[in-house]
Design brief:
Blueprint lengths: L1 H13 L4 H12 L7 H7 L5 E3 L2 E3 L3 E3 L12 H4 L4 E7 L12 E4 L4 E4 L8 H11 L6 E5 L10 H12 L5 E5 L14 H18 L4 E5 L5 H13 L4 E4 L22 E4 H17 L4 E4 L5 H10 L3 E4 L1 H6 L2 H10 L4
Parallel strand pairs: 3-4, 3-13, 4-7, 7-8, 8-9, 9-10, 10-12, 12-13
Antiparallel strand pairs: 1-2, 5-6, 6-11
Helix pairs in contact: 5-6, 6-7, 7-8, 9-10, 10-12
The structure holds flavin mononucleotide (FMN).
The site of flavin mononucleotide has 28 residues, from strand 4, strand 6, strand 11 and helix 11.
Length: 339
């Protein structure tokens, strides 16, 4: 409440109401933490360990990809109660992303629209940062995607480069084929393209070690496309599914902010919650794969509903941006002792 009523409005006012400036300043401030202060974690975390795809998590609430693309604030996230952190999406080549403005907060709908376009410093820069600063004290996922200038036909080599560069640091990899903001990327969810990509990445991974590969899916797939995708994941020994990325749908946006739905990009937050849960349920019913449920988790009961739908872990982006770290504490408390 304090965050929503006082802190967030103040941060927005100071940033001239520009959400990307708020984001940039927040991550910059959090990046000043170079070690995890145990006292803070004591406030925000309520640990309830879980083992999923062979990894031990202190609790089931993770930071979703996109919040800390370049891994700048790695030691802050565990201090704010997160049980795991997914950095990225990073690409082989550093890239600036789409022109600004590209991030829109729809606070009245508990939602965000973004078309960031994988702005990131590149896989080598992230590897160098992880080598210099060390990993966080909770499992680290690294999300990899395709560089914008690389044609789809050369995507496999582009992903493989990032996988190799970051292999020593990841506890799991998220293969992102579902961002709506890189032209053509979602075509990599199609059966043949995904089979080729996952086949090559699994071969490369097997040469390097045993780090689990997960696939992040879009909420906009039809049931039959999703079923096909799951077959390919099963056939290629994928360790889990992250469901879901942002949606191109604008269903559920209401009030004066609905006009902002005309902005291109992916919608996240409350309007995505029901569809994300549906996809989690579908994946759970049609495959035995462990699931990270993400999309519209804005309170403890939302997280609980994700687990009830079949997820083993949850991730949060929009809820954290709008409600602050108190949300992570609330989710942790709701989920403690869930199973
Ligand atoms: C500004 C912004 C940037 C994002 N960037 C990425 C990204 O780089 N890679 C990715 O896999 N997902 C990205 N996402 C999607 C989130 O990880 C998450 O899947 C989605 O927002 C749904 O969760 P939420 O409703 O809790 O936000 C981004 C989301 C937002 C709002």
């Amino acid at each position: 409440m304090l965050f929503e009523k006082l802190i967030r409005p103040a941060l927005y006012r100071l940033a001239g109401n520009d959400p990307e400036t708020v984001h940039e300043r927040t991550v910059r401030a959090l990046s000043l933490l170079r070690a995890e202060p145990p006292l803070l974690r004591g406030i925000y975390a309520e640990d309830d360990p879980a083992t999923v795809f062979g990894l031990s998590f202190p609790n089931r609430v993770g930071l979703a990809a996109g919040m800390d693309k370049d891994g700048r604030a790695l030691h802050a996230w565990p201090a704010l109660g997160f049980g795991f952190v997914e950095v990225g999406t990073v690409t082989r080549l550093a890239q600036p992303g789409n022109p600004k403005p590209r991030l829109f907060t729809l606070a009245g709908n508990d939602a965000v629209i973004n078309r960031m376009g994988f702005n990131n410093s590149g896989a080598d820069a992230l590897a160098a940062k992880l080598a210099a600063r060390g990993k966080p004290g909770v499992p680290l996922g690294i999300s990899i995607g395709k560089s914008k200038v690389v044609p789809l036909g050369e995507a496999v080599e582009d992903y493989r480069y990032s996988l190799r560069a970051l292999y020593p640091y990841a506890d799991y990899f998220a293969v992102n084929v579902s961002s709506p903001n890189t032209p053509g990327l979602r075509e990599l969810q199609d059966k043949a393209a995904l089979a080729e990509l996952l086949g090559e990445l699994q071969r490369t991974s097997a040469d390097l070690g045993t780090t689990p590969l997960l696939v992040k899916v879009a909420p906009d797939l039809t049931d039959s496309a999703l079923a096909e995708l799951l077959e390919v994941c099963d056939a290629h020994g994928v360790a889990g599914v992250i469901a879901t990325n942002t949606t191109l749908s604008r269903n559920g946006l209401t009030g004066p902010e609905a006009a902002a739905g005309a902005e291109a990009g992916g919608l996240s937050g409350r309007p995505l919650a029901e569809r994300a849960r549906e996809v989690v349920k579908f994946v759970h019913t049609h495959s035995g794969l462990p699931i990270i449920g993400v999309g519209g988790v804005l309170c403890g009961p939302d997280a609980r509903r994700m687990l009830d739908a079949g997820a083993s872990l949850v991730q949060v982006y929009t809820g954290f941006a709008l409600k602050g770290p108190g949300l992570i504490r609330e989710i942790n408390r709701t989920l403690a002792g869930w199973r």
